[in-house]
Structures are given as structure tokens and as C-alpha cells.
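Two proteins were folded this term; both appear here.
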Amino acid sequence: MALVVFAGTIGRSVIGGLSWDNMQYLVGLAELGHDVYYLEDCGEESWVYDWDAQQLTNDLAYPTSYLQDCLEPVGLADRWIYRAGANSTGIEIAEFDAICAEADLLIAWGDALTTWRAAYDSPRRRAFIDVDPGFTQISLAQGQHGLHKAVDNCESVFTTSPRIGTPTSPLPTYGRQWHHLWPPVALTEWPYVPDAPSQGLACIMNWKGFHDVEYQGAFYGQKNAEFEKFADLPRRITREIQMVQIGADAEELQRAGWRVRSGEELTRTPSKYRELIQSCWGEFGIAKHGYAAMQQAWFSGRSTCFLASGRPAIVQDTGVGAELHAEGGLLTFRTAVDAARCIAEVQSDYAAHSRAARDLAERTFAATEVLPRMLEIAAR
């Protein structure tokens, strides 16, 4: 058994999907028998969007209440610290520093540790997990200071892209060997749901959550830059399709035939997010423009949740189709015509695709299958 400190962004995200992206690791590590602690370090100040007040807040009470609500159901109610400057909530700082001194591994998830404190040097090994492949490497190449700190202080670096660092990738590597890691899903928290779905296809998306980038003359954008290719999809299919979104023009989407629903309301907590996914017929996934353009086989942690639930995932091809060779349950498309054809294929034998979705999750994305290899590499 190893003592593992996982640094994430649950309290700062205060949204169910991103919380699960972190929690899959926490649950998976615990299920493997490891002693797990959660760290969230905001740097000098904690600025979080308060969904209730509809404004930013630097009061630690809001994000830490949300964090506690996320971690208590998975057995980590008293195993976390939330830090901002000299202030903290949860485990006392001195106690947490002692935990770091005993830790076998510190995992920095995405941009969780742009502030690096002396205590984070104490664990025997440190690992960085890139969850925004391509954009992360470009940011490093362009000198993003906070990200450099985390990557430079980690002996091993992982990415959810299986192509970065290979001869087929045009992207920079920052001089590091990037080990591939599929986004894990904790199958005990995401069981197969045999019940007939009550909702139609769901496209869950944050319209423009991050920044566009340019690299060597190429533009890499967000989902808003990619959506126009598929805007008329509702008119091409017979099944209802809903857009569960944050930040989009709802009236424009409705005119195009989409059933528009509030992502803020339906995905705010981990439990609401899971309820939404498990009530849906399947996923219709549009990738960031950059992921589609880079073709580095990015795959979403959201899609793994659909698959684990036995809900087929119909997703835009980022190169992942050629990597996974799925025989049902997961279908990829490049055009609206392709997407409509994939939806019709799933409709023709939904039961088979539902079972194949769960099988793929168990075989490829189960946290208990994905994480041991990461831990083995990180321990070297």
C-alpha cells in the first residue's frame, strides 16, 4: 500500500463533471488499497464562481463546503486540505506537511499546482497528469510559468493522448517523455444501468471554457469554434437530442432544433451529473476544435462515464477511433452526415451497443486497470 496525495481542482470547479474527473482517481486509488489524501492549492487567493450568488467569491466557505459534499460520499470526508495563501480549511497545515513527508507519491492533476510549496518536494515521487493534451504542451512551449513549475518538479509526466511524443505528433514535448494514460472511471461509482433511458441523446458542453491558442501558424480553438459543423444535426435525425450547456446562446440552439437545458442546474454536483448521464439514451460528443484539428486521440472522461453506465457514446473523432478499435458502444464521426449515420446504427440495435459500451469501459477505462500502470511508472 502506498500513501498518495492527489492534487486536484474540485473546489475551484464547483461543477459535477470536473469533480468526477478528479474523483475517479481518488476512488480508484482507494479501491486499489492505497492511503489517499486530497490537496487543493489555489495559490495566493481562492477565486471561485458562486452559482447561488451568481458572482465570484474569495470566501473559502463556499468551495470547501462543495468539496466536503463531494468527498464525504467516497470515504474522504476528513482527508483533504484546501489552501489559499496562508489560509486553509480541512486538515491543519502542519499535519498535512507531515503527511507529505511520509507520502510515496504526489500527483498533480492538470493545472492543480501552479503554486509550488516546499512541502510538495517531500513525497518520494511526483507525477504530473496532463488532461488537456496538445494545449498543455503548447502552453509549456510558450512559457506558461505556473504550469512549468508543476511539470519541472515532477519526475514522471502522463497525458491522456496516446500520440504525443510519438513520431506522428507535430506537437512539442517540452523535452519530456509523456506516458499515456486513458481517463479512468471508477466502475463501482458508475454501475451499468439496464433500465430504459428516460431522456434522449445528450450533448454536454461548456461552450468556451478555456483559451484558444496558436502554434507554428496553426489555430486551435474551443468547442464553440467546432459546433457550427453539427448545428443542423437535429434536423437530420429522428431521435431527440438535448444540449446541456453552459455559456451558449440558448435561443439560437433552439431555432436549430436542439432541446436546450441548463448545464449549471443539471450538472452542478457529482450526483446530479451522474443522474443526468444515466437517464440519457447516449452521448453525442463534440470535441474542442483544437482536439479535432490536432488528431492526438483525446478522449473525454465524460465519455467514460456514459460507457460505464451502458450508454453508447457517439463522439467526434480526434483520432481515438483508430486507437480503440471499438466493436460497438463507441462510434466516432467527422461530419454531421457521419454523426446521423452513427446514431441510426445505435438505434438499430441499442441493447447490443449498450452492453458493448459497458464492456469497453471495463476492458479499457476501469480505474483499477488504468491506475496500476501509472503507479508503476511513477515509482521508478
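Next, the second protein.
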Amino acid sequence: MSGFNKSSILTGIVITIVTVTILHAQGSMNTFVHDPVMIKQGNTYYIYYTGNLTPYKTSTSRYSGWKDRGSAFSSGPSWISSTVPANDGRDLWAPDISFRDNKYWLYYSVSSFGKNTSAIGLATNPTLDPSSSNYKWTDQGVVVKSSSSNNYNCIDPNIFEDTDGRLWLTFGSFWSGIQLVELDRSSGKPIANAKISTIASRSAGIEAPFLVKWVNYYYLFVSWDKCCDGANSTYKIVVGRSSNVTGPYVDMSGKSMANGGGVILDQSTDQWKGPGHNGIFFENDTMFCVNHAYAASNGTATLFIRPFYWKDGWPQFQYVPPVHATTIHKTTATNKPMRPELSIHTLQNKTSLVAIRGNDFYTIAGTKIKNLK
């Protein structure tokens, strides 16, 4: 939350009271995606997600106007048939997109549901704009792979570049959990004699890591429980933090994520089920959470884009109440003065006054009724 807080006597003002929904998509509630990741080139936002040959969408306004742009690839790489025989060569999951050293690096997963015979592939491109003359995705082959003999699963990649220039890959789904390995900057693949280490684990299910650094800490976002079952999904967005990129990552109580610890940031509501597989996008000194959740009505995976706010070094969602389902309350001369906590709240470059009572936020219309003196 930005701005300042103060206590004040609030009289003679129309207060619009709403029930704050735990899950609110910032203008993207009609956009289908699954396992989204977002990046910006020039004035255009790009979202890549799970599907046929890595589909993607673009927008110039971030929260809305997303348009289907087809798939990143025209065909799957030839190595898939021998590395992951159960995959048809087109069903590519959970991409990760980043930019460094004058090119875009697109990592993606190749697997089959419920199996850990899997691989993470890589393609590079000097631009994301398909109208550019130098637009071409170049296959860079397998980055890491796993089989039934491994106790980890090589899917759900995320690349993290540290402030010292070192490059790290986090990945993993179920089995022993979330893995971390250092990459070579020039190849985007593991360094020589690289060690794969487990940094988060949970017997009931953990996957979809995303690693970032914010101020003094490294933050590891993951998803707990079950995805990919429409309205029956039980995904949750979870986070832990560490002073070191290699961990240990802990929750607010100090419990290690390697032992099942984590802070739940979001989970199912009556309207939206299984929020998860979040990517992180930075813009204008703001960290945005980009994830999918399933509509309870029909199970459709839907795009959510929301800013994180910070309290005591931990991210949290500041919810924007829906404009419907409002109840107007007017003070009268016989009422006792209301004394809520007031806050100046800024979201999407719009500043407004809100009243806070406990964990509830109330919009204030600001209409003067009369002077009660």
C-alpha cells in the first residue's frame, strides 16, 4: 500500500461497503491462459502459456485487450520423440521467457501427465515481434531431463539472473520437489559439474517455482496441491524467502520450505478455484503476479494480473473491490461518529481514499451529504 494513514472522524460522507473478494482479476477475467508468464518488448506485453507449440497473446495495456497471436513455434524440435516418447512433439507446457545478452530466452517443458520422463527445452530469438525481419526462434536443445530413475521432474522452468550476473534455473513438480541448478550464461544450460539441489519440498504436492530478488531477500514462489482439474483444482500460491539464492527458504514462522513450509498468498474462493502457477513481472518498481485460476462455473483457466504490496518484507495482495454488490450507508445526526483508519491508496495510477476496518477495505464515494454540525 502506498500513501499515508491517519485516523479521522468520518461524518457526512457516503461510504460504499463491499465484501472484499480474495481473488480479483485486474481487467483480464475473459482471457484464457494456463501457466502464464509475461514480458514486455517496447510498448507491447507478451504472455506465453501452456499449449500447442507454446501459444502466446499480446496487449498494449497490460490488464486488458489481450489478443491471440498463434504459437511461438511452427513445429516441435526433433529431439522430443527420443527424449520424451509419450509427448506428441507439440504439447509444450509451462514456458518461461526472459531477456539478456541481446536475445530472448524461451524455456519450456516437455512431458506427459503424471510421469517424470520429462525435459526442459530452450529456444532463443533476437526479438518477440513476428513482423521483424530477424524474428526467428532457434532451437537450443535440451537443458535438463529426467526419467523414472530420478527423484525429480524436469518441468516448470524459471530462470533467475542474480545481481552478480550468475544465472540459476529453478524447476520441479511433485517427486522430491523444487530444484535449483546454476546455468552458464552463454549457453543457458547447466555449468560444468553442476549440482542439482532441492530447495522446497512437500508431500502433498508442490510445483511451478518462480524465483526473484526484492530488496534484501530472495523470494521463491511455488504452487501447492492439485492443478489441471478445472473447478476441482486445489492450487494455492505460496511464497518463502531467503537471504541466499541457494536457500534455505523459510516462511514467516521460520519453517523451511524444504520441510513443507510456506506462506499461502492465494487460494480458492466460491467464484475462482485453484489459483496458481504464477509468474512475476516487474514494471515501474512494482512487482506483478501473473497466474491462472479456474472459473467455478465452467472450469476455464483464466488470466489474473495483480500487483503485490509489501508488509514487513512479505508480499501480499491489496484487493480492489468489485464495483457491483455495493451497499450505501449514510451517516445521520443521530449516528455516533465513525472512526475508521483512512488511507490514500494508489493502484493503476489512480489515487483514492479508502477506509480500513480490520482486514476490510471500503471505497469512499466522497459525496457530501450535509454539514452535521
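Confidence is low (pLDDT under 50) at residues 1-25, 320-340, 345-351, 357-373. Residues 5-20+324-368 form one domain. These notes refer to the second protein only.
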